[in-house]
Amino acid sequence: MFEGRALLIATKHHKERVIAPLLEKVLGVKCFTDSSLDTDILGTFTGEIERKDDPLTTVRNKCLMASKATKCDLIVASEGSFFPHPALPFIHINVEILCLMDYKNNLEIVVHEQSSETNFYGNSINSTVELNEFCEKTRFPSHRLIIRRSKKKFIEIVKGIQSYDQLLSYYNYFMNTYGEAYIETDMRAMYNPTRMTVIEKTTKNLIDKINSCCPECDTPGFGVTDTIRGLPCEICQFPTNSILSLVYECMKCSFIKYHKYPNGKNEEDAMYCDMCNP
Q1: What string of DSSP letters covers 22-61?
Q2: pLDDT tens-digit profile of 163-212?
């Protein structure tokens, strides 16, 4: 389905560095990028252009925008999000979505990757001591930084800072001019090696899903679309909140397959039962 076809990677942040080698090797496609594509119009991490849609809608819009601009019918795009860990508020989570759109065959394949390995951080800095601590915490200068007047002000933003002398110069300028400075990590992929590693893992997930074909129509992308909870308690047999089955669905013919007991057990420990251990 894909071998020998041109595949456009819709990015302006050099994600093709990790995506293209994997897809070309496994799928036999010929990857390329288009420098005229400005995916930032759909939103930026620094907030001067607000992302109006959810991440999945945004990545679909990237694919559509790229296809319309280039007339290419095979597109890959990604979108990243960062938010506090639900249980550990001082740790952030990076979620990457990667979408392959095959407009020729009316096929969409979407995968996700979640990682707590991220240097995502931002803070108001009031001294060179705090500045040095920030640099150490965020793995600077291997990971670049952004500085602005404050978190909510977008008039002056300096991105892609790569040396301490450069950072100190901008810090002194903002402090002398405005009496305040806000520094954050530059989360654009080409300036953030940790995020680029997560994108690479997401690409491997995409390849795995492409290689999973529907048992009914043999279309690539046969994967988990839902979970069914209700694994019975080992003592009272009451349904627990643990996963009973995974639901696989073909995006082409809508064939559905249920994979029961995906975690290798047909009963749940009573400690997770709301009846036995309320």
Answers
A1: HHHHHH--EEE--TT--GGGG--TTSSS---S-HHHHHHH
A2: 999 999 999 999 999 999 999 999 999 999 999 999 999 999 999 999 99
